[in-house]
Amino acid sequence: MANTKISALSTYTGNTSGAYLVMNNSSNTESFKVTKETLLSGYSQPVIGSWTLSTGSNTVSFTVPAGQSYIMWVNGNIPNGIVNWNATVTLSNSNVPAIGVHYGWYYLAGNALVLTSIPDQIVGTAGTIITSSPVITNSNIFTFGITNNSGSSQIVYYGYIKVS
Which terminus, N or C, of the chain has the lesser number of Cβ atoms within 10 Å? Predict the structure, then answer.
């Protein structure tokens, strides 16, 4: 029975560079090419992007699909300017709050990068039930205020990974 299953799989005969899966059933051994996409199918890949901040005040955002849970982050790191934000949230749809926790931090007021606002649709207090409505209409858009005092354009990175 096992030989029937192995023989039913086709042998890869194309480009021989890359990863291989070798199936050995006693005297019947076959090799099959396995791509990274095949090995990682079913696992979420992180979405990573960046914003180029002009000097002065900037309002930037990223959007995630509603109906999922996420780990999200923002990271800017230049000399005399560090901004960090991270969150773990669950969204049911875009017109109700995002339930979760989030934290923001920046190096010092007046330094090269200053985090001036973080998303306000994330609600939750450990051990409580929340019934409040979001203060914005699209709770799947995460908006930040970042002031760039460096004197030149700077890049800040953001990203998220779907966990459900």
Answer: N
